[in-house]
Q: What sequence folds into this?
């Protein structure tokens, strides 16, 4: 029923005979970074002189006011959980949950939940996020699940637009698609928390433009450049099941298919992109 690790905890419980819930639980420390702070987060560092260094650029840090910091902390948890909690359901391919005899097993679905708690010390935390206030707006925030670290800015709880050349529409006879300028709306902290959950970019690990998608359906994905969830983002919950369900022996009821779960998004979603090159179809005479 319960699972604990350095990366996260989990709780798996039946709600009734037809539904279970699987909750991933994360404890996060938010580290307030001032211009005078000394830190090094996976090579991005400050030595207390107000300059933040990454691989290619220097950024000038501003100080936090207490009101700004408290506002960031107060909004951080609710923004992430409101987006990620109860957004997926895992549906089995056959009955699997044993009911009291003489009732047959039920095909219990699994609701995917998320719990996020802010803690005050590194010893309590699964992950540590360093929060900075750069004057420049082009700092690239990041999160690494294996290292249990991340760095965000004071702007990252808000939604912002990114515009990219994107393949749209069906392919022609040569397999080519039209290229349009498309603007995508995304909240950085939601995308980066996807990395904390263990998700790569929609086209695999890496930070090249291609990794964030090529086609419209890839680009609009949360792990591309947009705000759209698919069953792919439920992978952290599907993967967690191996810690809670006992595998059946290979020779157990060979005529019964192996138990598998299919993820689907259960929450309504908005369209959060704009095709800048879209033109309406000609009116029919």
A:
């Amino acid at each position: 029923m319960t699972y604990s690790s350095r990366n996260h905890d989990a709780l798996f419980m039946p709600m009734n005979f037809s539904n279970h819930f699987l909750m991933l639980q994360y404890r996060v420390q938010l580290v307030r970074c001032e211009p005078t702070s000394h830190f090094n987060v996976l090579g991005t560092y400050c030595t207390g002189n107000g300059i933040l260094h990454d691989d290619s650029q220097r950024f000038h840090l501003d100080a936090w006011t207490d009101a700004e910091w408290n506002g960031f902390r107060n909004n951080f948890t609710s923004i992430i959980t409101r987006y990620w909690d109860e957004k997926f359901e895992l549906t089995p391919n056959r009955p699997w949950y044993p009911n009291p005899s003489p009732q047959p097993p039920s095909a219990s679905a699994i609701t995917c939940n998320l719990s996020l708690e802010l803690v005050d010390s590194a010893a309590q935390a699964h992950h540590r996020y360093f929060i900075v206030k750069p004057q420049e707006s082009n700092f690239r925030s990041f999160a690494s699940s294996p290292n249990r670290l991340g760095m965000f800015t004071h702007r990252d709880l808000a939604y912002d637009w990114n515009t990219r050349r994107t393949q749209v529409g069906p392919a022609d006879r040569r397999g080519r698609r039209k290229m349009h300028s498309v603007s995508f709306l995304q909240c950085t902290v939601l995308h980066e928390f996807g990395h904390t959950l263990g998700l790569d970019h929609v086209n695999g690990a890496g930070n090249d433009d291609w990794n964030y998608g090529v086609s419209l359906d890839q680009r609009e994905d949360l792990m591309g450049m947009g705000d759209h969830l698919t069953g792919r983002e439920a992978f952290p919950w599907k993967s967690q099941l191996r810690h809670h369900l006992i595998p059946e022996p290979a020779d157990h009821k060979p005529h019964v298919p192996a138990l598998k779960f299919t993820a689907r998004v259960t929450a309504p979603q908005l369209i959060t992109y704009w095709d800048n090159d879209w033109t309406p179809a000609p009116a029919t005479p």
